[in-house]
Design a protein that fits this description.
16 helices, Zinc Finger, Delta Prime, domain 3, alpha/beta, binds zinc ion, 2 domains
C-alpha cells in the first residue's frame, strides 16, 4: 500500500511537487515524469490518480481499499486511462481512441486522467496528434506522461507539460535497503544492477525463473570456455525456451552484459566490482583465459547491438544466433 509519505522517501522532490498541487488543488493539465527504470514513475502516477478520485481520503492519502482505489490499481477505472506502447511504440490509433473516449464526459465524475507510459515511444504521427490534444485542454482532464528518455520527446510536447524529474536511486543506499529486507548480501549487487525498484528486486530474489535465468547465462559463457561446439545446441535447448517473452529476452541480454562486464572488471583487477561472478572462482578464471579484455569489449558491443535488433523486431532466434556466432 502506497502513501505519499512512502513515495516521498524514494522521490522527495517529485513527490513534493505533486503533493503541493494536490493540496492547493492546482492540478496541471499535463505532467511529464522523467526518470530511469524503477524510479517509481508508475507508483507516483497511480497514487496521484487515486488521490484525485478516492472518496475516502485521509488528507491527500487515498484509502486504497475502496472500490475506486481498487479499480485504479487494477487499471479498471473508467476515468483513468492507461496508454502503453503496443509492441514497440504508441500508435496514432491509440491516441485517436483516447480522444474519442474523452469527448464523452467523465463516466463516473467530470474528472478524467490518462497515464501514458513509455512516452518516448510515441510515433511521429501519434506525438503530433497528442500535441493537438494537449493544446486544447479540457478543464477536468489531466495527462500524466511517463518516460525514461526525455530526449526522444518532441520539445513542443515537453513545453506543454509540467516537467518532473525523478532522481536516480542511490545504489549503495539501495543495496543496504535490500540487505535490511533480508536479501542475501551476495545477491544485492546483481539486483541493484538490474533495478532500483525494491519490490522488483524482491521478486527477482524469490523467483525461480530468475535464478534459472542467471544459471543459463553463466552456463552459456562456460560453454565458450569448455565445449564451444555445443553452444548452438545449448541456445536452442536451454536459452530460447527459457527467455520466451520479449521482456525476458531483454533481461537475458542484460544478464549477459553484466557477466561480461564482470570479466572486464576482473581483467582490470577490480574484483570488488564483480556483480554476478564470485571473485577468483574457477568459472571466472576460465573466462579470463578465454576472453581478452579487447574481446570482452567487442562482445559487449555485440550484445548492445543484439538488444537494438530485438527492439527493431528482428526475430529473437536470429538475433541470438548471430550474437552467439560473434562471441
Ligand atoms: Zn479509496
Amino acid at each position: 500500500m502506497e502513501t505519499w509519505d512512502h513515495v516521498s522517501e524514494k522521490q522527495p522532490v517529485a513527490s513534493r511537487i505533486l503533493m503541493n498541487s494536490l493540496q492547493k488543488n492546482r492540478i496541471s493539465h499535463a505532467y511529464l515524469l522523467t526518470g530511469g527504470r524503477g524510479t517509481g514513475k508508475k507508483s507516483l502516477a497511480t497514487l496521484f490518480a487515486k488521490t484525485l478520485f478516492c472518496p475516502n481520503k485521509t488528507g491527500i492519502d487515498p484509502c486504497e481499499v475502496c472500490n475506486v482505489c481498487k479499480r485504479i490499481t487494477s487499471h479498471n477505472h473508467p476515468d483513468v486511462h492507461w496508454i502503453e506502447p503496443e509492441g514497440q511504440s504508441i500508435k496514432i490509433e491509440q491516441i485517436r481512441q483516447l480522444q474519442s473516449e474523452f469527448t464523452y464526459s467523465g463516466l463516473e465524475s467530470e474528472q478524467k486522467v490518462y497515464i501514458l507510459t513509455g512516452a518516448h515511444t510515441l510515433t511521429v504521427n501519434a506525438a503530433n496528434r497528442l500535441l493537438k490534444f494537449l493544446e486544447e485542454p479540457n478543464q477536468q482532464t489531466t495527462a500524466i506522461l511517463l518516460t525514461e528518455n526525455i530526449g526522444q520527446i518532441i520539445p513542443t510536447i515537453q513545453s506543454r507539460c509540467q516537467l518532473i524529474d525523478l532522481q536516480p536511486l542511490n545504489e549503495s543506499a539501495f543495496r543496504k535497503k535490500l540487505a535490511t529486507i533480508g536479501i542475501d548480501p551476495s545477491e544485492t549487487a546483481l539486483l541493484s544492477a538490474l533495478t532500483s525498484d525494491i519490490e522488483e528486486a524482491k521478486e527477482y530474489s524469490q523467483d525461480e525463473w530468475f535464478a534459472q535465468a542467471r544459471t543459463i547465462v553463466l552456463q552459456l559463457i562456460n560453454m565458450y570456455t569448455t565445449t564451444p561446439a555445443d553452444v548452438f545446441v545449448y541456445i536452442h535447448q536451454e536459452w530460447l525456451p527459457h527467455f520466451k517473452e520479449r521482456e525476458q529476452q531483454e533481461l537475458g541480454y542484460e544478464l549477459l552484459m553484466i557477466a561480461f562486464k564482470d570479466i572486464l572488471y576482473a581483467h582490470m583487477h577490480m574484483d570488488d566490482h564483480l556483480v554476478i561472478y564470485q571473485p577468483k572462482s574457477e568459472n571466472l578464471t576460465r573466462a579470463l583465459h578465454r576472453f581478452t579484455a579487447g574481446e570482452v569489449s567487442s562482445v559487449l558491443r555485440k550484445i548492445l547491438d543484439a538488444k537494438r535488433k530485438l527492439q527493431q523486431n528482428v526475430h529473437p532466434t536470429l538475433v541470438l544466433e548471430q550474437l552467439a556466432l560473434h562471441i
